[in-house]
Amino acid sequence: MPFPHGNGSFFLGGGSIPFPVHSAYTGTDGQQKVVLNLNINININRSRTMENLPAQAARNLAEIRKQKPLVHNITNLVVMNYTANALLAMGASPVMAHAISEVEEMVSFAGALVLNIGTLTEDWVESMLTAGKKATALGTPIILDPVGSGATSLRTVSAKKILSQVGVGVLRGNASEILSLRHADSRTKGVDSIHGVEDAAQAAETLAVELATTLAITGPVDLVTDGERTVRIANGHPLMASVTGTGCTATATIGAFLAVDPDPLSAAATALAYFGVAGEVAAETAAAPGSFMIKLLDALYTITPEDLQHCCRFVNGQ
Question: Where are the domains of the chain?
Fold first, then answer.
């Protein structure tokens, strides 16, 4: 179901079609015509999105390298250096800025905002809220990574607070983190997942509708849903789970793709495909996790849009 904007427009796959909501009730004939046309547009858009994802992935990567979008990260201390290098490798321009006195100004220059609560403090949460509200006002896309949500009350409450006050376009997490935001009794094992992607699939679709956002759940096969459209991404390699911060780097990658693709589902799905293909390429010559980390950066740099279109593996539907 598309979500109405305050100005009476509807969001259809990242594009906004001006539509006076109240006109649907001016008469029986008028209402039927409006609803029919809206549904046709949704179905066409959904079909195009699913069928064209490989080509869209290639276009998105090409646009990142052309535009070099500034991606503002308020992220955790463990991954800050690596995610910055990953963004540089793919062609984006990273900035890591969390001081509350500058985040509003910094996010004003950015093409996307990445919020990651991996090493959160109360002060950092306030910076995230401040930057997030400014980005929301500017229409700048935002992705939230609720690292470890469900493990402690601070993490869970902070993630829910950000979601309630900021216009998050994509919420990326593992299955347990996503489940913690819906079910009060869900728990995580530190920042690792104790649930599989399929455990969270139905909850993700419901939560995506409730929050009017796109959910990206990562695992052996990733799942992206906006509540209406669902796509799975079958790229990746087991070594990705042996390196700290690959999930956070996937989040930053989605941030870069959001800066060039106005459809959050398309941006998230194509970003995860790109990151998964990079993992596959890196694993071809990596001996173990240490070398894999470096090879992954190399792969993010060397994969071409044509490579990505050929290698990405999307699975539509439930």
Answer: 9-49, 53-316
Q: What is the pLDDT of residues 152-163, one digit of tens each?
A: 999 999 999 999
Give the 3-state secondary structure of the chain.
CCCECCCCEEEECCEEEECCHHHHHCCHHHHHHHHHHHHHHHHHHHHHHHHCHHHHHHHHHHHHHHHCCEEEEECCCCCHHHHHHHHHHHCCEEEECCCCCCHHHHHCCCCEEEEECCCCCHHHHHHHHHHHHHHHHHCCCEEEECCCECCEHHHHHHHHHHHHHCCCCEEEECHHHHHHCCCCCCCCECCECCCCHHHHHHHHHHHHHHHCCEEEECCCCEEEECCCCEEEECCCCHHHHHCCCHHHHHHHHHHHHHCCCCCHHHHHHHHHHHHHHHHHHHHCCCCCHHHHHHHHHHHHHHCCHHHHHHHCCEEECC
Number of residues in the chain = 318
Distance, in Å, from the CA atom of 17 to the CA atom of 54, rounded to the nearest integer, reads 25
Q: How many CA atoms lie within 13 A of 128 on its CB side?
A: 32
As a dihedral over the C-alpha atoms of residue 62, residue 51, residue 140, residue 106, rounded to 10 degrees, the angle is -30
Nearest to 193 by CA among 229, 159, 224, 148: 148
Whether pTM exceeds 0.90: no
Backbone angles phi, psi at 102, to 5 degrees: -125, -5
What confidence tens digit (pLDDT) does each residue in 171-196 have?
A: 999 888 988 887 454 444 443 444 55
Assigned token pair, 111: 């093409």
d(Cα 197, Cα 278) in Å, to the nearest integer? Answer: 21
Phi, psi of 143 (to 5 degrees): -120, 135
Which amino acid makes up residue 263? D
Instruction: Write down the architecture of domain 53-316 according to CATH.
Output: 3-Layer(aba) Sandwich (3.40)
